[in-house]
Amino acid sequence: MLTDLIDRNQRWSDARHAEDPDYFRRLAAQQAPEFFWIGCSDSRVPANVVAGLDPGEVFVHRNVANVVHSSDMNLLSALEFAVDALNVREIIVCGHYGCGGVKAATEDMPHGLADHWLEPVRRLARAYAVDLARSDSDEARRDTLAELNVVEGVRRVSETPILQRAWRRRAEIRVHGLIYGLKDGRLRDLDCSTGPGHFLKAAAR
Ligand SMILES: [Zn+2]
Question: Model-level pTM?
């Protein structure tokens, strides 16, 4: 219930204030997060909680199945602000195993607007159909697709004019792909990070 939520907020705010009387004044004055997080809207994968970060430490954008659409003005506006105004150093694209959005992208039944939203994931599933078919189970296949979706997200973020511009001016920003396990609460690095060299390599091609 909403009243429970307001009560919980009051208790949290009181506890924070008791712990550090200057806490809210400091946070209200400015935010200087080190991380920008692009994750899934799933209620079980809140960026601050699973990454153990306090308010003020991570700038967040979330959508169904953490899809990076190259024309998503919402994501691009947040990305540009994070890079150009907040000067974040680490950008994280985080997917998760057991993702309902990824599952929906593998199903034949209609899901309304989500089918448009999830089109890039569906396209990935088609592109990697042979590899995905080697999985032992539907669950394993979807989890591999969730990983591929993260790797694709890292690539797309890296190729935005926002990151290319930042790397051209030698900004030390890195983009990482992580995946979160709902079953064990662990974040895993998918080893697909990009950095300033990504621009240099792209330019050398
Ligand atoms: Zn999800």
Answer: 0.92
